[in-house]
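Review form for a predicted model. The reviewer records the input and the model, then writes brief findings.
Reviewer: anonymous (R2)
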Amino acid sequence: MTALSFLSPLALLGLIALPALWWLLRATPPQPATTLFPPLRLLEKLTNAEETPVKTPWWLLALRLALLTLLILAFAGPIWRASDPVNLPGETSTPLLVVIETDWAAASDWDAKRAQAERLIDAASAGGRPIGVTAFPQPLSARPLPGDRADALASLASLQPQPVEADWAQTRDALNALLENPAWQEAGIVWFSNGLAQDNDTQSWLSSLANEHSMAWVNGTPPSLTLGLDGGSDGPAVLVNPIDGQNNGDPRSVAALDGSGRQLAIAPLLDGDGALRERIAFDLPLDIRNDIARIGVMPTQHAGEVVLVDDRLERRRVGIVGAERSDEAQPLLSGTTYVERALRPSADVIVPRTGDTNGEIETMIDQGVSVIILVDVASLIPSTVSLLEPWIEDGGVLIRFASTGLTQSSDGLIPVPLRAVDRQLGGALTWEEPQAIAPFSPSSPFAGLAIPEDVAIERQVLSEPGAALATRTFAELADSTPLVTGEARGSGQLVLFHVTADTGWSNLPLSGLFVDMLSRLVELSATRADVAQSVVPTDETTLAPRTTLNAFGALGSPPDHVEGLVLTAGATIPTVENPPGFYGPASGPRALNLFEEAPKIAPSDPTLLAESGAELLEIGADESLSLRPALLGTAAVLALVDAVIVLVLSGALAGLGATRRAGTAASIALLITGLVGSPALAPTPAWAQSNTTEQSEISRLIAAANSTRLAYVVTGDGQIDQRSREGLSGLSRILTQRTAFEPGDPMAIDPAQDELAFYPLIYWPMPDVPLAVSDRLITRIDAYMNNGGTILFDTRDEAVSITNASISPQTANLRALLSALDIPPLEPVPDDHVLTKSFYLLDSFPGRFATGPLWVEALPDDPEGVNRPARGGDGVSPIMITGNDMASAWALSSDGRPLYATSPPDRLQREFAYRTGVNIGMYVMTGNYKADQVHIPALLERLVQ
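Model under review:
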């Protein structure tokens, strides 16, 4: 059956106005043609053969009437239907109410459902019936009144399926209230189902509704399957729930994604026999498995095919901060490596290795770690302590391992007071034997762990005796001295291992007990989700929405109607106001899934409604043809033809050539004017001046990177800074003359602001005025020394200290600075140190003064008692201290003459000062290679034997 209909038949009334339009167009002549006024001497020869008609030509009038007729017909929306019209329920004089189920299941065939609803609205409009559209569930429960096609289409366009289950009790109440309106009491109802069965109460209510109203049922296509979240030892997994075998032969796959949407793993829905898999897990490394944030069927059809994963199924996130210096640390033997390898299988481990201890701790707290482990970190600056204390109070666990300088720490983050010296067990200088570990007490976090017999402790830091020591001891040695102590602070724990994390003090890191002990301590921490949810200490916690899931299974920004999620003791059910998604802070969001447990879902049975009088309405594909595009296209062509005719009749095309030339000239003039007035061509002195400082800093960094240079710290005292510059310039010249090291000109730096990584050696003279020590300064110096840099501190007060027993201002400044730094133990340069042989053979290190010692990092012990020419393994000392005023002794004029006299004046002392500078320069550039060279004779002798 074919038929012609109009979507807006009232627009055809415009055809009545065609006679009036014909009269108006006929009375309006075309625009008169213009003729240019010629010179006077040609005026008498001017003749105009063309005449302007008084009235519009009939053929132009017919063209315009045809154009208007096409426009009127196009606005009426003509439709050529090639199929049978839709049989609508109810009388043609009664309104039609369209009810659409818009829960999560409606998303699987939403496009087809909306196309069917549009065709239904067109059919009702063509029949002249008022129509209204309502849907459940929706953010706003509107109560529509019968309206025209435009109102119905607007209501339909505003609808989107919601990623929640239908609340049938609320739906029944809302629809009953709507049908009580007199405008809808006689209405016919078309119900668009999602294809799933309803509960018994809803089925009975729909049957009674079909008895009261003429009702038709459009059955949707049910979804094929849903996913449920399942956890286990293999990590986050999903349970596949089919809906009555609708998923047979489904070729899709299930993918695991991280928080950024990157695919981590993929697995097919079907097994090797073509059957649907009941449970799907992913074979991933543990550190990657912990990144899973979402698991879904690909491509996703609806929200039921996606589950979200939060920290409740993840491992703890652990940050390891190691202060081992990069120039001497052996990665495979360092304490950081032992701890990292022990925790990798059971935790998400972060090891920055930047050398900036305090900066790493701040970054880890921002990343939401649950545990921070400090390896070989003796002390922390106050700003870092102020960050760690509230973090521990909120559930974090801080684990510290002993180090040589820990007993001098004053940061307060130690569970028990420590004695000033550690305890050596075993060796040539002690009668005590290495101690075994005593059995763990039942109250200890390590209770029940098996203790290997071969674990022995050779060195430990001791705690001061006190009443609280017994309650804070987690593990102890056989002689009842503590091995691990801990203290609860708020919701967190502060734990101290009284041994190092490497094998220097014990063989505990080589045992499986070490792994088990660390795992038990990590379990004491709260997860990121637990920490995030404990911000408000009440029975109900409100979490702000972060990202939410729409009904099509896509994760994105929450819509405007989404509210904060209130967590209660029971299960939280998603609603329109709280759809599935992530709620809470970024450090530990809480995942809310569509189904907490696997739902029992079955397809709907339309025959049950048919028994009550509801008919099953089949709405096929729309095979109608809209004539509007063709009519509008033809009208556009006629309008173009009309415009050309008007131009010809008015004579406008006759001067096209001149008009083109004039337009070109005008365009060129406009372009020139724009270029002249362009800001790009105008001078910009202010912009250039504002970038002078930035360009200078960039040039400085490039100069420091292109050539190895020595650096000196600017103190603010012009005389001191001048001597530092002259001294390092003189030392650079001497190094160039006597060695293969050719440094560039020295650079002045501010250690609190400038980048220090470019300089192998920094000379820092202590000023007379008090030195400002900030946390930023301490952090940057610690990072520089941990990454292999060396600082030479010079108090320049050796002559004063000999005659004056009091502490000089320079020494006081140095002590204030060193008290905040995490520095190793120091000693005067011993006879077997590499500094005595790095270039020249030296037994003293003079400068302008000759009596002061040069302090460096203490060399490791020589347990074998072998008197070797030099001991290896010392690397490069990160710190040197002298009072001999080195810069004044190194200072040279432009012609190579010394600028400042030595005390006492002695040419030989100045020569040895130069040699001291050369040895220091070669030492910081080449490290301990000389320690290996001096062993060659001994090695050759052993090879001969």
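Findings: The two ends are 112 Å apart (CA to CA).
Further findings: The longest strand covers residues 482-489.
Recommendation: see findings above.
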